[in-house]
Amino acid sequence: MTSLVPITKEPCQSFLHQILEIEKLSFPSPWSLDALKSEIKNPISHLWALKADEVLSGYICFWSIYSLFKDRKEAAHGTKSGNQWFWAHWKDGL
User: How many Cβ atoms from other residues are within 10 Å of residue 7's Cβ?
Assistant: First the structure.
């Protein structure tokens, strides 16, 4: 089963290191722990984790300003082009 989980300031600790692992596998210049925490605290930033069979498989970070949407980053575990995998499974989690 695939599900989307919002990552907020309160329950984010369980996801931080998993997201950083995906970052390191997916991007040549991955976000640091401080950068990730900054995004979580940013009021216009939204982070969602994609869980498949209870395992964090990917995430998305986007900014929402009024009705505008700015995709900041998305990645899936074990892929360099995680965005294609993520978006293909995004609908399943809704």
Answer: 24
